[in-house]
TrEMBL record:
The gene is rsbV. It comes from Nonomuraea glycinis. It holds the Pfam family STAS. CDD domains: STAS_anti-anti-sigma_factors. Residues 3-115 form the STAS domain. Transmembrane segments: none annotated. This is Anti-sigma factor antagonist. InterPro entries: Anti-sigma_ant, STAS_dom, STAS_dom_sf. Belongs to the anti-sigma-factor antagonist family.
Length: 115
């Protein structure tokens, strides 16, 4: 399955919306998007995972790497709206205590066109 990543930045914040499956084959695409985004230096990133059907350990490692780099830059990286299968992976691996996990995308990240 194809992985789609779209990023919207506003006022030092970024919302990364991911659609599809994050696995060994698609993780490099996500990694390169995070690398590009982190060069812009946002203070906070929220990853909208509401359209992610599957995420394996490779995908979790990409998310952890991005979190580590954000913290090194003094920023924060949160996970929002994970589907039950992804939430279960976060819980089983203990990563739900490493990431700040929101049930839905925080209101301040719902950037409307023209704002």
């Amino acid at each position: 399955m194809e992985l789609k990543v779209s990023t919207r930045s506003h006022a030092g914040h970024a919302l990364v919306a991911i659609t599809g499956e994050i696995d060994l084959y698609t993780a490099p695409h996500l990694q390169s998007e995070f690398t590009r985004l982190l060069q812009e230096g946002p203070s906070r990133v929220v990853i909208d995972m509401s359209a992610v059907d599957f995420c394996d350990s490779t995908g979790m490692n990409v998310l952890l790497s991005a979190l580590k780099r954000m913290k090194e830059q003094g920023g924060a990286l949160d996970v929002a709206a994970p589907r039950p299968a992804v939430r279960k992976i976060l819980q089983v691996t203990g990563l739900d205590s490493v990431f700040t996990v929101h049930d839905e995308v925080p209101q301040e990240f719902l950037i409307t066109e023209g704002s």
